[in-house]
Design goal:
alpha/beta; Carbamate kinase; 6-stranded antiparallel sheet; 18 strands; globular; binds adenosine-5'-diphosphate; binds aspartic acid; binds magnesium ion
Length: about 400
């Protein structure tokens, strides 16, 4: 007998038939004698509709109330999943995040898990139940409902797996595992058998939404090995775990594309100490997430600074930058939307050279212009025109031979 935590995402519970499908799958594990904890997301599209609804009521909904609202999506699914299991004669109990003992900080809409006391989960398991827990939610120490950021049901599952010391953690989704690129973008992408936490974390942070980045960070910290697999078949999925020596033999594990990026260039910035600090302090104080930053070589005492950010933050950033440009005596600024960030990721880059050259060659052959470049130990990112995103991803993917399945 094992203790298994399974998570089913929005598409997997997207309609009554799919909820029954999940119940059937869970029932199989239960009948084999395992203790099963099931984490479910809201039905696909529900969280988006709730956000839209809130914005129709008021342009700036209070974040506390937003969490109260969004948590209802998952609350619907836990009850329906429990009912579907009852329909199969399987004892099951649904629990909200708070009831499952998930305590977070008080940062509404992107709360961090502070601790989990899964006493009720254990009690219900020991009484023979399947325990269904609402993903994406918890409560702060004042008892207010919080949510864990988009895609946060992944985090619920991984954190619960750590807290209950699960033997197995399975993330069921609508694809067969983690692929060398988003299979919807690159049809010949291949399934990765094993991937290290660091690679998964980079891919997730750089646009591969198959896993929430924060959940991977958590898994790495608490050494939770997990499998990403399909809720629609029994194919083996992708194992995400600590790196092993042979993983370095693969130089590039995958390619990610992040859309919805924008860039701002401030021209004629005085080349003096403290100027960059002024600009980026103001942006940080407004909680704007700045990504790549490039400063040109100074010419005649002034320079240009360019940085990227999420397109949704562009309006806010423009308003902030305008007075700063005047204050620091810069010439002016321009903003550009419609760019994407393409990244190649692999821990093999630590020990193998030539990746940048190959990436740039592939992009040049596809006639894709590179706007900005940034690198870290295990990734190279470039920003490109959004309209060329798919073509560029496909070209780079094939240039690194990722269309040919590799042994683990
Ligand atoms: P869930 O609702 O199950 O959490 P998501 O929609 O959040 O599922 O994530 C699954 C989706 O992630 C897939 O349908 C796929 O289009 C997308 N995706 C992006 N990059 C990758 C990748 N490298 N491998 C697999 N899927 C990916
Ligand atoms: N329902 C939430 C979302 O759509 C959480 C999740 O699905 O993981 O972001
Ligand atoms: Mg998801």
């Amino acid at each position: 007998m094992s203790l298994i935590v399974q998570k089913y995402g929005g598409t997997s519970v997207g309609n009554p038939e799919r909820i029954r499908n999940v119940a059937n799958r869970v029932a199989r594990w239960h009948k084999e004698g395992h203790h099963v904890v099931v984490v479910v997301s809201a039905m696909s599209g529900v969280t988006d509709s709730l956000i839209k609804l809130a914005k129709e009521v008021t342009t700036e909904p209070a974040e506390r109330e937003m969490d109260m609202l969004l948590a209802t999506g998952e609350q619907t699914t836990i009850a329906l999943t429990a009912m579907a299991l009852h329909g199969l004669g399987i004892p099951a109990v649904s629990l909200t995040g708070a009831q499952a003992g998930i305590v977070t900080d008080g940062v509404h809409t992107k709360a961090k898990i502070a601790n989990i006391t899964p006493k009720k989960v254990h009690d219900h398991l020991n009484a023979g139940n399947v325990v269904i827990v609402a993903g994406f939610q918890g409560q702060d120490d004042q008892g207010a409902i919080t949510t864990l950021g988009r895609g946060g049901s992944d985090l619920t599952a991984i954190a619960l797996a750590a807290a209950v010391k699960a033997d197995v953690c399975q993330i069921y989704t609508d694809v067969d595992g983690v692929y060398t690129a988003d299979p919807r973008l690159v049809p010949n992408a291949t399934k990765i058998q094993e991937i290290s936490y660091d690679e998964m974390l980079e891919m997730a942070s750089l646009g591969a939404k198959v896993m929430q980045a924060r959940s991977v960070e958590f898994a790495k910290k608490f050494k939770v090995v997990f499998e990403v697999r399909s809720s629609f078949n029994d194919n083996p999925g992708t194992i995400v775990k600590q790196e092993t020596k042979n993983m370095e033999n693969v130089v590039v594990r995958g390619v990610s594309l992040e859309k919805n990026q924008a860039k701002i260039t401030i021209a004629g910035v005085p080349d003096q100490p403290g100027i960059a600090a002024q600009i980026f302090t103001a942006l940080a104080e407004a909680s704007l997430n700045i990504d790549m930053i490039v400063q040109n070589v100074s010419a005649q005492g002034s320079t240009d600074i360019t940085f990227t950010l999420n397109k949704d933050d562009l309006g806010k950033a423009r308003k902030l930058i305008e007075p700063i440009v005047a204050k620091i005596g810069a010439k002016g600024f321009t903003a550009l939307e419609g760019i994407s960030k393409l990244s190649v990721v692999g821990i093999g880059m630590r020990s193998h050279g030539g990746v940048a050259a190959k990436l740039f060659r592939a992009l040049s052959e596809a006639k894709v212009n590179i706007l900005m470049i940034s690198t870290s130990e295990i990734k190279i990112s470039v920003t490109i025109d959004e309209a060329l995103g798919q073509k560029a991803t496909q070209t780079v993917h094939d240039a690194f031979g990722l269309n040919i399945a590799k042994p683990a």
